[in-house]
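Sample pair:
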Amino acid sequence: MKKKLISIITWTVWVATGASLFVLMGFARESFLNAPLREVRLHIEQHQEGGFLMKDSIKAEINNVFSGSIGLPMRVIQTEPLTSHLSSIPWVESVKASTAINGTLKVWVVERVPLIRVFAVSGHNVYLDRHGYVFMPSDYHTTRVLIVNGDVDFEPLTFGRTSHVLNKPYKQSLLPEILAIGKALHADPFAHALIDQVYVTDSIGFEFIPKLTHVNIIVGDTNSINDKVLKASTFFKQKLTSPELLEYKAINLRFTNQVVCIK
């Protein structure tokens, strides 16, 4: 009987404690929802050579969305319109926004990381990021990345918009292949440091232009592009300091398991 009484008391205490916690949580939630929005804190994540996004500009965009919101109860603060608005900025990769119990709205913005800049023969140019998104250059910042030019063309972006290399009309252009080249070079640190430019011609296809030597690298198409980049990297590691390299005007990677040197 005594054990049963102790069990009943214990169960009652647990129920009472749980109910109290539930009430306290409800009270804390109501207090939070009724508290005023006091400030907006912004953090922008940029890569080493980033600079497309300026903090003052993003703050101005936030103020456009939340104009007059400071002092309003947290229950009326909606983050979705803000994240949707900021995500439409061409140089923004992602946005997160959350409210804190101290009345703060925290906004995290991640800047796009350009991988390649492609110049069309018709005059316009775009960046490609690591995920294959196509976005426009900025009037305020230029990032040092791999340059692609020559006999390449594609539709210009509508001002202020982004697209993807697999979207129409870019899917039918050379941009998907150019992205594959950029990824292959980026994955090989030596080749990435070696290659300054990619040039495109009708007769040869893709050609790498190195930074430190006059020897151009004929790639052709992007079939087995990772293997071709590896062959180029291995060749130049072995020959970069050799006088023999001065005898060549180009090396050809278009043949399977071979590097053909052209004097």
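The longest strand covers residues 92-99.
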